[in-house]
Amino acid sequence: MTTDLNRTASATRQVGSTAVAKVLVMGVTGVAGIVTSRLIIEHYGVDAFAQYGLLTALSSLLPFADLGIAAVLINVVASSANARTDPEVRRTITSALRILLVSASVIAGVSLLIGALGLWPTLLGDGLVPGDGSRAATLSMVVFALALPLAVGQRLLVASGQAAKATVISGLGSPIVLGVVALAVALTWSIGPYVAVVSYAANAVVAVVCLVVAARMLSPQVVAAAKDVPRLRSVRGVSVIHVAGPMLVQMVALPIAMQTDRLLLSHLAPTAELAQYNFGAQMFGLINATVGAAGVALWPIYARARANDQVRSPLRPTLVFGGAALGLGLLLWLVLPIATEVVTQGKITLTWPLVASFVLFVTFQALKFPSGMYMTDARGLRFQVLPILLMVPLNLALSWLLIAPLGAAGPVLGSTVAVLLCQVLPNAWYVRRDLGRRRLAAAAQLP
């Protein structure tokens, strides 16, 4: 009993410290993001701000870029008794780096080809600034691709129970962007269309710092694994398909289902609607980011519990996460009119249907996180594939139909309904059955 209480207390501390770290970082990044948005709108215009949101969202459409290897890394490292000496950990990191290098090369090559053929306006719609917009899109994706292999550092920190540290380091990104934009404004540089490129470069800096910290923490595993990358014949990788396969399917489907709102608005609504959505997403994204950081901290906890044949239910975290997200959403709704006036100087106005839809969206997103982190073994990941695949046509159809009557609120409400029907409810059903199965198996092992 004492051991179980200690484990519960340790898990609570990990999640709590990550949430607190995210709140503190959110305060810094939130202020930096708000000031950055104001500088962009005031000095480069609403169109530049709309494109900034559109291009920074492109990475959300490519979370499958790591080909599901993040799930393998976190599960293997979190389950290891001694990650600093475990040969399986080293081989897994080597495999991850090889896969990410291939993925980065493909993304960079395709992005350059799209730019050379002038296809970005066709793909992204009228939200691009004519001329510079296409070049900015190409540069953004190339920088994103170059930084992709570096992202193993963040995964390793999370797997090692250092999600709070990874969260603090991630807070460097927004101040870097603000510093560059402020410098550009002071020197009258016309970088309005290229602020998104600065954002991707700042994320690359964050990835480098995380990788250095993770390499020191797991020394000598990361450096040794990197040296093994070109030794294809003498150093074989590990099998990743059983976990990476279903994870990859989800990572392909989820962006289509959840991150196409800006693209739909760019094609089907005026630029003003896209700007409203961008600002609302930026504000409520602070809540999603906090919940997401705390939620990911649960992943290694459930992975270690599985490795040790422990039964750990996500019910209580689900209630806590949902209640916290709802409370934060309502609180933000109260202060949003002031924030909108200060940041946009009256150039952007958020309607109550849009704000209400965002409150519901962040609440249901929070409700799905604990169960999603519980379902990160091969069995749970396979189960999630079908509901998420069904969510793609459902969300696209709802968002498409609701844009005309509701404007920017349409796709947010469509995404909310899709999350409820295809993630929250199916995950709850699976977790209930899986907990029963694990408890029966644990009882059968008792003398």
Can you walk through the features of this model?
The model is unreliable at 1-7 (pLDDT under 50). The longest helix is centred in the first third of the chain and has 43 residues, at 2-44. The chain contains 19 helices and no strands. It has 447 residues and is mainly alpha-helical. The chain has helices at residues 2-44, 46-56, 69-79, 87-117, 120-124, 132-147, 152-159, 163-170, 173-186, 195-217, 221-228, 241-258, 261-268, 271-296, 298-307, 315-344, 352-374, 378-406, 409-445.
Compact description:
Helix content is 80%, strand content 0%. It is mostly helical and 447 residues long.
Helix/strand order: HHHHHHHHHHHHHHHHHHH
**What best-fitting shape do the alpha-carbon axes yield?**
globular
- The amount of helix comes to over 70%
Percent range for β-strand residues: under 5%
Distance between the termini: 17 Å
Regions with little confidence, pLDDT below 50 for 5+ residues: 1-7
Q: Mind telling me the C-alpha Rg?
A: 22 Å
